[in-house]
Design brief:
heterodimer, A: mainly alpha, 71% helix, elongated, B: alpha/beta, eight-stranded mixed β-sheet, 20 helices, membrane (chain A), transmembrane helix (chain A), notch signaling pathway (chain A), Gamma-secretase subunit PEN-2 (chain A)
Chain lengths: 101, 721
Amino acid sequence: MDLTRLPNDKKLQLCRWYFKVGCLLLPFVWAVNAVWFFKEAFMKPPYDEQKQIKKYVVMSAAGAAAWVAVLAVWVTVFQLQRVAWGPTGDSLSFIVPLGRA
Amino acid sequence: MASCRYQVLLLILCTSTLVYAERLHEQIYSSIEGGAACFRRLNGTHQAGCSSADNGAVGVVHMIKEINDAQWLVQNASAGPYMAVVSTAQFYDVIEIFMQQPANVAGILLYDNATDSPTAFSQESRCPNEYSSAPGNTCSSTVAGGIVWNTKGTGLLRRNIPFPIFYLPQSKSDEIDKIQVCYEKFNLDKSNQKGNPLCSLQLNSFMFAAVNSEVCLRRSASSALLTPTKVCDPLGDNNVYYSLFPRTEETKSSKSVTLVTARIDTASLFDGVSPGAASSVVGMVTLLTAATTLSQLIPAKDAKLHEQNVLWTLFNGEAFDYIGSQRVAYDISKGVWPAAAPLSPADIRLHVEIGQIGGALSNSNDSSWPFHAFVPYSNIIPEINEFLDMMTSNAKPYNTPVITPEFTTNLPPSSLHSFRRILKNVTESGELPEVLLVDHSNTFSNLFYQSALDEYGKIRFNYKNLTISDTGVFVSTDALLANGTLKEGDPQVKIARLATALARTLYQTVTGTAYSGNITASAHLVDEMLYCFLQSQACRLIMAADYASSSGGESPPAVPAPLYVGVAAWAATAPVFAAHLLALLTGAQLPANRTVCDTLAEPGYSYYWLRGWNHSGVCIQTTMNMSAAVSPAFAITDYDLSSGMYSSWTESVWQAMSARVFVSAGGGGAGAAAGAGVAATLLAAALTYWLHRHADRIFATPAASIVNDDAASGILRTVNC
C-alpha cells in the first residue's frame, strides 16, 4: 500500500490500528508500524494528524525496542544457562541438541 | 512433441549429471570398509567412549611407528589436526600422549597387525567395576600401588575420549595398505606439510547422547514436537538359569540349593567386536559342560531321592557394573527370583562363581591349569572347605585343577561383589557362603581382558571339527586323547576335566556319596561349544539347539555371536544360544510332536520345540528359564541414577559409522578461487558504477511519457495493492 496515496485521516487510522494490533503481544507489528510511518511522522511537512501519528510511531518504536531488549536478554540467559538449568532447560527447549550437553 | 523432446533432453541431462557426480565422489573418496567404531556409553554421572562431530572428524593421516611420531604429532605438527594410524602393538604406549594433548588429534585409526601383535591389550580399567565393588576391595585405579587386577588396562572403556577411534581387524589389512600407499605418496615430507595436498582420513561416528544416563534418558523420554528422537537406551539383556531338579512353589522349601554361576558377556571399546575368549567364554563353557555332565550323572527323575538341588546361572551384563548379578541379588532380596519359585538367601547352601579362568590357558602347553579360590571369610566356613576338598579329590585322577585358596575380601571382579553388596547381611556373615574360582591370584593372567583381541587364539583353541552322532552322543575325552585328536594340553581337554571335577563335586553334594561311575565331560562337546561361541554361530550345536520353527530361514552367519550385553530393548543372540544349549543338552527329550509339545505344561518345567541333532524337530522338557538382566536402577521407580548404588549404564544411539580416506587439497586452489571471486565482484561493481554514471553515452535520452510519475505510480499501485 502506498502511503502517499492515502488521505491523512486514513493514515492516522492505519497507524493507530497497527499500534493496537501490536498490543496483542505482536512486537513485530509495532516495528513495522514504526518504520512504515517514520517518514510520515517526522519528515513530512506538518499536517493535522501528524502529531497523533508521531505519538503512535514513538510508542510503537519504544514498545518494539523494549521487546527486543527483553527477548535479547532472555535468549542470552537461556543460551548461557540452559545446561545449568538441567531438566528445566530441556523442557524449555524445542530442539534439544544431539551429542552435547 | 517439442515438450516431449525437452523432457527427454532433461532426463538425459539429469542422469548424466548424477552419474558424473557419483564418479567424482568416488574419485575423491575411498571408503574404509570393515572398521568397528568406538561408541559412547553413559553411566549415572559421566559419559564414556567416543564420538565424532556431527559431520565426521577429518585429519591428516600420520602413521605412528614409534612413540616419537606421536610426540611429533601433538607437539610439532603444523598441518593439523591429524588422524593417527596406530597398530595395536603401539597403542598402549601412545594413547596417553593423545589423551593428554588432544588438541591436534582428530581421531585414531587402530589396526591389528599379524606380524606385530601386542603382548597386552585391554581398554578396561585397571580395576574393572571398581565402583560397584563390595567393601573390602582394595584395588584402586587412581591410587598408585597395591593390588591391581588389570595392570595393562588403559581404562578407555570408562573414560570420555575426545576424538573418534576406529578399529580395523587383521582381516582388513588391505585397507591399511591403501592408507599406507596414500600416506607415502603425499605426507612423507613432515617439515613441508602445510599448504600441500595431504592424504587425509574422515571418521564419522556421531553419538546422539551426552552428559550422563539421567540426561539422555530424560531427553529420550521427552517427545518434543520436532524431535521425538531416542538418544540412549539402558544396557541389559537376559540371565539364563537352569536347575538340576525342577523347582516349584511346593517343592522348593524341601531342598537347599547350590548356586553355580558364571557370566555370558564381555565387552570391548568397539562396536560388534567382543570375542571375550579368556574373559568370559571359557567360564561359560565350563558351566554349560559341567551342567550337562551333572544332568547325566543324576537323572531328573531321581529328584525325590535327594535333599539338594543345583541352580546353574549365567549372568549377563557383568562387564558393566554387574548388571545381571545385581538384578538377581536385588530380586532375591525382594523374594522374586526365580519367578516360578523364588529363592530366599537361606535356601542357598553355597554360591560358587566360575570367574575369569581362561587367561592361564594361553600360558602353558601342558596339562597344568592352576586355580585360585577366593574365599572372602576369615573364619572357617564348612561348606566352602568341603567344596574345595571335594574339587581337589575329584580332580586327582587328572592333576587338574590344583586349587590354591586365597582368604581375602579383596575379590577379583565377579558377581560376588553384587551379592556381597546387596545381600550384605547374609553373605558377610557366611550364612550365604560364597567362593570364587579364577585362574590368577593378584593380577589377571589374561592380558587381553575384555578387548577386541581376546580371541580364540589367545586360549590356544584349535577347532577339531568332529561330527556329532544323530542321537547327540559326543566322543569321550579319553577316546579323543587315545586316538591323538586332542592332547592333554589342549583347552578342550582342560575344560572338560574341570567340568568333570565340578560335576562330580556337585554330585557328591547332592547325593552325599562320591561318584563311582565313569561318566566324564566330553572334550568333544567343549570343542563344539568353544567353536560356537568363539568362531562361528553356524555351528552344529547352535543349529541343533535353535528353534525348529526358524529352520526355514538361512543359517546364521559364520561369525561368533557378539557377547557384548547390548541394549535392553534388543535381545542378544548369545544368551539365547546358551539357554537353548542348556535345554538341549540337559533337558529330557519327550516323544511328542510339535502340537502336543506346545500344550505341555507341567509345573517347574518349560517345553521347547527345538531342531534337534538330526534337524527333524524335538520336544525338550527343561527347567531352563531366562530372567531380565536389566539393572535394578531401571526397575526401581524414582531411582536416583547418580547414587551409584546400581549399574546405570546406557548406550548412545547413533545413525551411521563410516570411515574414508581422501587427498585433501593444499588450499592453493581454494585461495585462487576466492581471489578470483573477489576480483570479479569488484570489477563488476566498478563497471556498473561507470555505466550508471555514463548511461547517456550509451542510451538515447528516454521519451518523456515513459518517466511520467503518474503512470509509474499507477503501475506500482496495481502491483502492490
